[in-house]
Amino acid sequence: MAWPQKNRGFTLIELLVVVAIIASLVALLLPSLSKARNQARGTACAAQLHNLGQGMIMYAHDNSDRMIPGRMPKVDSDNWRVGIIGGVKYRPTFLAMMGAQVGLVPFDDPQASKNDIDRDGETGDRQNYSGSVYVCPQVADWTDERNGAYGYNYQFLGNSRLTDSADVTSFKNWPVKLNAVRSPSACVAIADCMGTAASFKPLYRKSYNNNSRDKDRFGNEGFNLDPPKVDATNGEMAGFTSSPQVRTALDERHNNRGNALWVDGHTSTETLKSLGYQLNEDETVGLNGNNRKWNINQKDEAWVQGE
């Protein structure tokens, strides 16, 4: 005679052991998943830079070999204006201008005056990019045209700030001819930028804020990418006239690396060190790095006006 088998369930101890094993596996997998997700975003970011880079080259071809300016200078509430896709824009950055060259819409409601308000409530000089291609996927909320994710090697390729506010064409270092770049494949054009937070210790760098002008925040004045070596007396920086002076630098936001677009249009992943930046003992980015990959003459020299 066969006796019926009793159904035996899991004991509490056994359940706890299973839960602990699952938790351990998740803990092991999460860093790998996070790294893979970050890597995918880095790949998407590089692809975006490559596409925008075509616009940079097309701009030069369409404008007598001139490299694109970093941003048109501020003269008054209506100038400079530039025609882009969708209308006339007040002081567009290099990103908006070169993106327009390849048909990538930068703003869904471009404003022609500094004081005009767009449909999102932003003023004409601080609009948010509406196209995702203008924003690094790793920092998707960095949409402000001033506090942007991508910075330009403006000092050497297109410093369109004015030397004399009374002379609207007294650009500091623009136009720069594309054929003046000695080795386009070895000269940085654009890269992931952390903004002026580079001048502060990592622990004191604050999170991004769209319309902020706080020097210690990530992204502040991110559209200006300063090279490694800066002459603090006669040179130029994103925050050259501020007190204290502050500078921008590459942002290693993709698994401790950053994406860079070179003048010839190719992209690569780089570190602060590989691009020539010098870190101080407190991990702030110093001013005495190496400019060979930034200077159009491949010289380790800072840009100084008039030279």
Describe this structure in words.
It is a single chain. This protein has 307 residues and is of the alpha+beta class. The protein contains three helices and eight strands; from the N terminus they run H-E-E-H-E-H-E-E-E-E-E. It has helices at residues 12-62, 94-101, 154-157, and strands at 81-84, 87-90, 150-152, 159-162, 171-173, 188-192, 258-262, 267-270. A four-stranded antiparallel β-sheet has the order 3-6-7-8. The longest helix has 51 residues, at 12-62.
Keywords:
307 residues, alpha+beta, four-stranded antiparallel β-sheet, 3 helices, 10% strand
What is the gist of this entry?
This protein is α+β, with helices and mostly antiparallel strands. It has helices spanning 12-62, 94-101, 154-157, and strands at 81-84, 87-90, 150-152, 159-162, 171-173, 188-192, 258-262, 267-270.
Identify the overall geometry. globular
Radius of gyration: 24 Å
* Number of E-state strands: 8
| Strand-pairing-aware structural class | alpha+beta
How widely separated are the two ends?
105 Å
* Helix percentage range: 10-25%
List the helices and strands and how they pair.
Layout: H1 12-62, E1 81-84, E2 87-90, H2 94-101, E3 150-152, H3 154-157, E4 159-162, E5 171-173, E6 188-192, E7 258-262, E8 267-270
Antiparallel strand pairs: 1-2, 3-6, 4-5, 6-7, 7-8
Helix pairs in contact: 1-2
